[in-house]
């Protein structure tokens, strides 16, 4: 098996080293793990691509590249140029912090898995939820490190990967607890925290110029039962199937009642 790994925290992020170990275990002795990751942190860029400017590439070692671009750019670079041969699986992460609930739509980690799916390659995004029970551990990524390879193997072997057009990809979040307290894998929907919205904090520099900091939101706000954040807070690894098709099927049916004249 040939696996391409990337992230949005940057080539030097500790979570990428955790992901390399996971990918190496999954690929096996006869497999290959290729790394193409952003040269600098790209958190919050979503499915952004550098469409209007080129991206410089630096080779840092065998099968290891840093690219001045977004995570989706890294997937495109790996699949289209850098990896020597066809890629079986793209893994993105392990992100420092959760990509559950509303975070999902902002996440560059998710953006990389999404690009893999658009290219017809199986993609999995992996993120480590941080909280008071794991943030001060010697390895805050302990839950992901201990359970990541098994999760990826099970998704590879047992999960549906179909789709004639927009193929499935998977969003995995490891709970904010030590590895021994992880209760297992839970298939859940994307949740909604409700009041957990991004905001801005204006600031005036000594020069008199105005700047805006983007502020995050409370991450421990639980979502509905059967959804990702709630499962994570309860000690489960959340696994959510996703597609790039953003159409709301129920709303479309209602809209067709209002606009009934179109016919194909």
From TrEMBL:
Its EC number is 3.1.3.5. It catalyses: a ribonucleoside 5'-phosphate + H2O = a ribonucleoside + phosphate. It is an enzyme of class 3 (hydrolase). It is found in: Cytoplasm. GO terms for cellular component: cytoplasm. A divalent metal cation binds at residues 8-9, 43, 95. Its cofactor is a divalent metal cation. Keywords: Cytoplasm, Hydrolase, Metal-binding, Nucleotide-binding. Pfam families: SurE. Residues 3-193 form the Survival protein SurE-like phosphatase/nucleotidase domain. The keyword Nucleotide-binding applies. Binds 1 divalent metal cation per subunit. It comes from the Bacteria. GO terms for molecular function: 3'-nucleotidase activity; 5'-nucleotidase activity; exopolyphosphatase activity; metal ion binding; nucleotide binding. The keyword Cytoplasm applies. Nucleotidase that shows phosphatase activity on nucleoside 5'-monophosphates. NCBIfam families: PRK00346.1-4 (NF001490), PRK13931.1 (NF010541), surE (TIGR00087). HAMAP family: SurE (MF_00060). Belongs to the SurE nucleotidase family. This is 5'-nucleotidase SurE. The lineage of its organism: Bacteria, Pseudomonadati, Pseudomonadota, Alphaproteobacteria, Rhodobacterales. The gene is surE.
């Amino acid at each position: 098996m040939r696996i391409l790994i990337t992230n949005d925290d940057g080539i030097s992020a500790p979570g990428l080293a955790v992901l390399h170990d996971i990918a190496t275990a999954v690929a096996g002795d006869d497999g290959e793990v290729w790394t193409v990751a952003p040269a600098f942190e790209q958190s919050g860029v979503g499915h952004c691509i550098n469409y209007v400017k080129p991206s410089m590439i630096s080779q840092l070692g065998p099968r290891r590249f840093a690219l001045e671009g977004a995570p989706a750019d890294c997937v495109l670079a790996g699949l289209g140029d850098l990896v020597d041969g066809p890629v079986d699986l793209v893994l993105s992460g392990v992100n420092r912090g959760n990509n559950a609930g509303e975070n999902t739509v902002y996440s560059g980690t998710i953006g990389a898995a999404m690009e893999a799916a658009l290219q017809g390659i199986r993609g999995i995004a992996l993120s480590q939820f941080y909280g008071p029970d794991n943030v001060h551990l010697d390895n805050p990524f302990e839950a992901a490190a201990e359970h990541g390879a098994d999760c990826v193997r099970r998704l590879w072997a047992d999960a549906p990967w179909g789709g004639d057009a927009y193929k499935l990809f998977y969003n995995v979040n490891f709970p904010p607890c030590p590895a021994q307290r992880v209760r297992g894998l839970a298939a859940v929907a994307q949740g909604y925290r409700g009041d957990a919205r991004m905001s801005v904090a204006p600031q005036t520099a000594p020069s008199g110029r105005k700047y805006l900091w983007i502020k995050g939101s409370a991450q421990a706000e639980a979502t509905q039962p059967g959804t990702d954040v709630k499962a994570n807070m309860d000690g489960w690894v959340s696994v959510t199937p996703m597609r790039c098709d953003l159409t709301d099927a129920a709303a479309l049916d209602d809209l067709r009642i209002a606009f009934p004249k179109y016919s194909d």
